[in-house]
Amino acid sequence: MAKSKKLKNVTLAQVFKTIIWPRKKYLSMGLVLIIISRLAGLVLPGASKYLIDDVIPKNDSTMLKWLIVAIVVAIVIQSVTSFALTQILSVEAQHLISQLRAKVQRHIIQLPIRFFDNTKTGELVSRIMTDVEGVRNLVGTGFAQMVGGVLTSVICLVLLIYISPLMTGFALIPVAIFGVISLKAFGRIRPIFRERGVINAEVTGRLTETLGGVRVIKGFNAEEQEIKVFENGVTRLFQNVKQSLTTTSMVTSAATLLLGLASAGIMGIGGYLIMKGELTFGDFLAFTLYLGFMIAPILQMSNIGSQFTEAFAGLDRTEEILNTPLESDGGHRTLTLENIHGNIVFDNVSFAYESGKDVVKEISFQAPAGSVTALVGTSGSGKTTIAGLAASFLNPDSGTITVDGHDLQTITLQSYRSQLGVVLQDDFLFEGTIRNNILFPRPNATEAQLMAAAQAAHVLEFTNRFPDGLDTLIGERGVKLSGGQRQRIAIARAILADPRILILDEATSNLDTESESLIQASLKTLMQGRTTFVIAHRLSTIRQADQILVIEQGHIVEQGRHEELLEKQGRYYQLYTYQARI
Ligand SMILES: Nc1ncnc2c1ncn2[C@@H]1O[C@H](COP(=O)(O)OP(=O)(O)OP(=O)(O)O)[C@@H](O)[C@H]1O
Asked: Transmembrane residues, as ranges (predicted)?
């Protein structure tokens, strides 16, 4: 996975086009509300000037009443608009987050298997759930605060110039210095935020692995080690947050210092002008209030700025994922096969995970429709890789794999995989009922089809003993199943899916004889009439196979049926004779 250094920055223009512009309706409504709210906010300082310079000197109690009414109305408007703003913008921001999460998940799930081999699950969870959260600042109240703040500042600036250009000029110097400091600071924080996303993903990734592998950790008494790894992770996260906090607090303190100095100066100049009779008390009061209104949003900018930077940093990472090519990308896969017979031919196929290191080397063989091909060989010889190639999880670097005469790389994944079934060693069962786990590839199957599959895989034998039968919950909140029972559910699922091509990675776990014979029987039913590739560990499966491919360092060193290969007294014979299990 690309590290943060290689990331391209998402630009303002991109964000405008993809995030801001499609929401122009909400954002413009928000803008109108912000304008109303901020204008209403200016009533109070304006009224104060009027009160001091006109109403009080003239003893005008009628005007006083109206002044109070105006202030109350303005306050009510402010409170109503602030409610509406949150309703419109914050809700839309959360909506955007959910849309983005769905988009990122949709993309990630369509990435090639190799991407998942190289990326921790927890890291991906963090990318889907956490990285996109920052965007709420772009659309939500952060946006409102920024636009409202800029607007208020500009209006106040005009009013300030109107009251006293001299004092305004004086006030603007520190504001300009502050602007330069904050721009520099946010440029520095963005990579820090991006790094935070990376650390967060790494820590979450490792934590997920730790919790998932708790048996191994306890079994090797490695708790202390894992605690240390996690502590290091959270410390890195802390250091990262600390770094960004130091920068943001420097911005805030620079603002306080510069703007405080400006206020002191203005008090001096203002006092001097009042004494000379060039400024009224009311003007002075209004000036200080307006100045406060102009400066407050600028102070807030440090906060809003870091929110925006966080949003952009998250988007940088999200964009990186969204730019990773999909498994189906490349434009070759255009052929839709309606009915697959399952004639599979490997012709001179080579494959390498890392360039130059072929793990499958120029292999050729035919797997006729409905036949069973058993892959045997020592560990690391390339059996899983060959099965992965047949499943279209991997693509050959050279040579071709054809299905019914068509190059597999030209067939749409959707049409090929709809006819493919996989039963892997670590049977993947969801939290939920046994029924839902079997129905997973064909949610609309009828009860009769479901029962037939469950029966054929000998699942009913054990579910009938449960009070809830097939509706028994499994996983954390339900019953725990034995390895053999889990395998039978996985087999029932594949029988129900009724694929033309089957990839089977036989579990190596030793089962008791009864379970073993039930699984053998289930597998026999499952393989019947389907083109099957089986990474075989059971002698019974190997004996049934139409052909056995003996794989050695990525080559097929022997090929034939069990008896033929035994007779040959070659590599297969050695494996068979010297090893209890193949
Ligand atoms: N994702 C991967 N990235 C890099 N190398 C890999 C990857 N998966 C497997 N390999 C390497 O490819 C070679 C073949 O692996 P493969 O898993 O196909 O063997 P296998 O015969 O199925 O082994 P086993 O019986 O132990 O499962 C091995 O040397 C392995 O280290």
From this structure: 26-46, 66-91, 143-163, 169-186, 251-275, 281-299
Tokens 């490349």, residue located: 330
pLDDT tens-place string over residues 112-133: 888 888 888 888 888 888 888 8
Mutate to test the pocket of ligand 1, among 358, 381, 537, 579 (most ligand atoms within 8 A of CB): 381
Instruction: Ligand 1, residue 388: give the atom nearest the CA.
Output: 18
- Rounded distance, CA 346 to CA 199, Å? 43
Closest residue to atom 28 of ligand 1, CA basis: 380
> Would you call 393 helix, strand, or coil by DSSP?
coil
Residue 504 β-bridge partners = 423, 534
| Pairwise CA distance, residues 344 & 365, whole Å | 9
Confidence of residue 2 (pLDDT cuts 50, 70, 90): very low
Q: Using CA atoms in the order 69, 72, 75, 76, what is the torsion angle rounded to 10 degrees?
A: -100
Residue 360's H or E segment, with its range, is strand 357-367
Complex ipTM > 0.90: yes
End-to-end CA distance of the chain: give it in Å, rounded: 35
CB 536 within 8 A of CB 505: no
- Name the residue with the closest Cα to ligand 1, atom 29: 380
Domains of the chain by start residue, with CATH? 95-322 (1.20.1560.10), 328-419+535-582 (3.40.50.300)
